[in-house]
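Hi R.,

Here's the input for the zinc ion complex you asked about:
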Amino acid sequence: MDIIYRFDPDVPLDRLQPESAAKAREILETGNRRFCEIVAKTQCDHHAESTLIVPCDARLLGVDPGGSAPRQEPFVALVGCADARVPPQMIFQRMSNEMFIIRVAGNVIGEEVLASVEYALEHLRDGLRLVVVLGHTGCGAVTAAVDVYLRPLRFDEIGSTRSVRSLVYKLLFPVHGAARALENLWGDEVTSRPGYRAALIEMAVCMNAAETSYQLRRESVSHGATGIGVVFGVYDLATQRVGLPSDAPGGFVGLYDAPETAEDIVPIAESIGRSEAIRALLDEG
Ligand SMILES: [Zn+2]
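And here is the predicted structure with zinc ion in place:
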């Protein structure tokens, strides 16, 4: 499998500057689809020859005869988890200077993350078209929060320092929301299903991404950032696909609009909780 970032000085590449949030979203979803396809092909046959060429403008990396520094002009601001298995530029097949990326364990919103997003909204708004919140399956930070929720007496053991406890505490809100959604859908006895913990982790990952995107959407509106979309999605470590467990099997949806109101989060939770993927997890022993 070869993924090649190719700069051809004889084929000038127009700087990719999508004119709308919808176009920016389409570019990311297309990039992720191509990445999934090449990985899937390699998974079927390790010796299969598959090459993905990403045309790029090396001048943005500083390959410029004049040696001048490029101006920062991303079209996406992304808040994602620090997990080493979730590299946003590779997932979406993008390159330098296209994505303003803020990564923190559990993709939680603290003061520094919020300030970084505000910076992008204020100072990079000429080219910025989209704000993305990207969670991922099997998130360790969310797993820690789920374990604290299920065994609160072990909070000190899981959150060994004040800073770790602070991060876990932020994640307890989506965990509570996910737990309530599962109980509303499947009854109180859902907590005794064999795969309850695993299902709660994946539900909470989705709820965390959705709730964070809701917060950032409000932030975007308060900055008067018209024309900038806010979306969320979850990266599946097993399939490399960005989407939600509620996506139709075999379908490819990609990124979802951030909820406009807190009430809009409820149907998202219900849809995920009813999905085949979450039901399968609940039944796993
Ligand atoms: Zn994570």
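One thing worth noting: DSSP finds nine helices and eight strands in the chain.

Cheers,
M.
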